[in-house]
Specification:
Layout (H helix, E strand, L loop, with lengths): L11 H8 L15 E3 L8 E4 L2 E4 L10 E4 L3 E6 L2 E7 L7 E2 L3 H4 L15 E2 L4 E2 L4
Parallel strand pairs: 3-7
Antiparallel strand pairs: 1-4, 2-3, 4-5, 5-6, 8-9
């Protein structure tokens, strides 16, 4: 804390001591930091979110869905009801595909079990929706 920033004459520790009285408590409520979009479902029952493909139920082809893009999950909903939850992909052109029958049962995406439910920051996974 005895470091000095280039053009300042005071040390960091003394600046912090002055400013500490102005700091406020951190909020206790959850702050949503997800990005939202409304992509259209393509003919292959997928939506494109930031150049990655995520599958949705076939019944939604050609319809617009709501997408909530978080750091770890992509949650896709239609008319206020969640229809898919995928682990977020990061490389352009990647696909998270779930078999059509699995979308209605609990989602078994080609080798990775994922639950179709809202994301919980506490458990860092999707949880049951009732």
């Amino acid at each position: 804390m005895d470091r000095v920033i280039d053009t300042k004459t005071s040390v960091i520790g003394s600046d912090f001591a002055i400013e500490v009285g102005y700091l406020q408590e951190l909020p206790t409520e959850h702050f949503d930091i997800t990005c939202s979009s409304k992509p259209r479902v393509d003919a292959k029952s997928r939506v494109v979110v930031r150049q990655c493909f995520y599958s949705v139920p076939v019944s939604l082809i050609a319809k617009r869905v709501d997408v909530s893009l978080g750091a770890e999950r992509v949650i896709i909903s239609f008319q206020g009801r969640m229809v898919a939850c995928h682990e977020r992909l990061v490389h352009r052109g990647e696909q998270s595909l779930i078999l059509a029958t699995a979308h209605s049962k609990g989602l078994e995406p080609l080798g990775k079990p994922v639950e179709v439910t809202p994301f919980s920051p506490e458990t860092k996974r999707c949880e049951a929706i009732i």
